[in-house]
Model the fold of this input.
Amino acid sequence: QVNSKQGGSPCKEKRVVLLSPVGRIEIRGCETGVHEIKLPKMSVLPSGAESSVVCEVCEGPEELPQPLQQCTAWLQAYFCEPETTGTLPVPAFHHPLLQRDSFTRQVLWTLLRDVKFGEAVSYKQLADLAGNSRAARAVGGAMRSNPIPIIIPCHRVIRSSGDSGHYGGGQLLKEWLLSHEKLQRQRVAQ
Done:
């Protein structure tokens, strides 16, 4: 459970599961914001990286707090109509890592704000963007601790060599997400 700032009382956490083209994505949060997004661990991904019409809530309460509604809407758009994600509100986040002032928080917010759909940056480039050009390794640590993957797009951070690097959801999922974004960006550009 996450403690809220008002008096330190625990949140009333809700959980929703989204059935996506890459499997079941679990989202946890409260009235204040999204706590975390848990990605499926996969050994085989669905064929192709095209948009899929299958992206729907398969488990969860009837009444979702607004941040969870916004999060599910954003993820549904990401998979099914990615060109619309820029017009949707990013849900509020309510995870301790994103509330206290730290280099990790700065890196994650920089990534969310500055690295757009279909783009990729190296760990070093992201360190530069976040204001510490010598902190590429710390950027890697920030990516590993990201509680809100996909929305905070740690999959867009790659090695300077061009290799995709590691990913909490696994190598196949990272490559699928990068391919999905590249294909969707090309489709929109045509």
